[in-house]
């Protein structure tokens, strides 16, 4: 199949949507399809061979953060040319409601269009103010995909339509065989030591770092060898100020890590802790920790419960409860058999999130969109599901 | 010469209104056509699922499932939704083994049917919204087509034991 994918945000900066688009494109190419990705990027930046740069992007504040996007007459001309030359069987756009290449592509498209919605914008000025204009964009979309239950809910409640829920994929192979950091994770003998991990912005309240900190401080008194590995953006001194002086040498801060180091970091701990208090729509980091073969302890959020298969693939604790977290951590650090059981289950669960599996489900949506555009049915073999 | 400006202005307004009407008519036409094509695809997937279920019933599960599949295949348009729901219920009642090719065919057909149903529902909704607009009704645009109709059936997705199958 010839597939054209449009990414609204520039590949020059890392981001969730960009990673998603790249992993999806690579998985589809791996399944034997022809893929071209159109994305804003400078002509001279180094890009994977399947990416077509659509020129400079401009920073625009969008949905609480800054997105680098391209929009305007020049971009329109480039999008049109790319679509004409590509002669795609299906066009797959991401975040079509942002003023971006994606929206331009939807408006220029003739054939079947599949759109993926990533963000769970619950209250957007754009959505409520411009319903009539959005309808023109939306009615050109043949099939919609939402990456999480929350994103799907927005579709149903605010955009008056359904969507197929297909979760974010995770490149299991990139996480599974990686070497841990030297000297990590160390021993984990009952009542003595063990290693905990946290990844994310520790200053952001909804990431719940203070809950993990409280649990760690208490638990470290009882377990003399307990260590904590923290990765993510933030200031080193700011982090260490949060711990009593006696415990500071048992906390290690990696700072912001690359994708490759993220995998190593996840493999360097006995327990990965996700103490988030809300605002998670999917829980990508949990699938990554599961892919790395690490035992996961997470707060009992809806999104986390779904990923962890109701606690079968990782332990859940009451959201925001540091005491319960400490008890859970102590129990799991003492019980290697239970950790092994959870990770074995985690392997099964994460297999459902592996990119080739997810890409096959996306291909079925492509097939549905093509069928709904020309009324003929595509064979299962051609979709590649068997 | 103010008279000439009236003529120019009037012509411009008429041209704009005409352009808008032509565009709207095209839009309604396009959405109608698309809803019909989606209905054809949905029909094909319903037939495929019923056929796959009939094959499976002949080999493994016997009379009740076979009867439900036959009834779904032969149903008249006004009985079809009920017949398809009945088939979904029958399929849910039997234990499907994903490693068996006939079972897998039914599971895959149900999955594709679920997608076709979702797309069809969305496109029918778009078409109905377009047809329902006051201007479109007033000028009776799209009257050459029947009013697009939902196909109201339960979600036909079959739940399969977790961990073996990529779909839920």
TrEMBL record, chain A:
* Keywords assigned: Glycosyltransferase, Transferase
Q: Does the keyword Glycosyltransferase apply?
A: yes
Picking any one GO molecular function of the record gives: glycosyltransferase activity
Which superkingdom?
Bacteria
Name all Glycosyltransferase subfamily 4-like N-terminal domain ranges: 14-172
- The yes or no answer to whether the keyword Metal-binding is present is no
Q: InterPro entries recorded for this chain?
A: Glyco_trans_4-like_N (IPR028098), Glycosyltransferase_grp1 (IPR050194)
Biological process, per Gene Ontology: carbohydrate derivative biosynthetic process
Q: What is this protein called?
A: Glycosyltransferase family 1 protein
Q: What is the lineage of its organism?
A: Bacteria, Bacillati, Actinomycetota, Actinomycetes, Micromonosporales
From TrEMBL, chain B:
**Record key words, sorted:** Membrane, Transmembrane, Transmembrane helix
List where the protein spans the membrane. 6-26
| Membrane recorded as keyword | yes
Domain of life (superkingdom): Bacteria
Q: What name does UniProt use for this protein?
A: NUDIX hydrolase
This chain's source organism reads Micromonospora zingiberis
